[in-house]
């Protein structure tokens, strides 16, 4: 069998200064490891290993950091309160119109809409 046309894969040897340069590029604002890996033609998993070796001290890329949270006072609701007097009108493609008050139960409204859509 002729093996002259078979391309053998060979492990590349990366000089340490180049590794450090590539790792530094991953810490630039807005940079992603995947994009940097593609730019330098490096496997992203290899790059994560280099980040552990050559990244900032104390950096553990696999463990997320926990940040303390302090709640103060009550959280304001994003939606304004709904009054029973508030009304909306829903017009379906089938021509049906429904007027719904603010106090309508969501499950009931869903059942009514399902029935009307099947007609």
UniProtKB/TrEMBL annotation:
SUPFAM superfamilies cross-referenced by the UniProt entry: TrpR-like
GO molecular function term, any single one: sequence-specific DNA binding
InterPro entries per UniProt: Transposase_8, Trp_repressor/repl_initiator
Pfam name, any one: HTH_Tnp_1
Any one Gene Ontology BP term: DNA transposition
NCBIfam families reported for this sequence: IS66_ISRel24_TnpA (NF047595)
Designated name of the protein: Transposase
Organism, scientific name: Paramagnetospirillum kuznetsovii
């Amino acid at each position: 069998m002729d093996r002259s046309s078979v391309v053998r894969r060979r492990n590349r040897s990366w000089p340490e200064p180049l590794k450090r340069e590539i790792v530094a590029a991953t810490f630039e604002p807005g940079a992603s490891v995947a994009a940097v890996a593609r730019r330098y033609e490096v496997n992203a998993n290899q790059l994560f290993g280099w980040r552990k070796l050559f990244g900032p001290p104390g950096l553990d890329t696999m463990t997320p950091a926990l940040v303390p949270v302090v709640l103060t006072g009550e959280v304001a609701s994003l939606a304004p309160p709904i009054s029973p007097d508030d009304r909306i009108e829903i017009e379906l493609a089938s021509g049906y119109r429904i007027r719904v008050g603010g106090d309508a139960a969501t499950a009931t409204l869903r059942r009514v809409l399902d029935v009307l859509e099947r007609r």
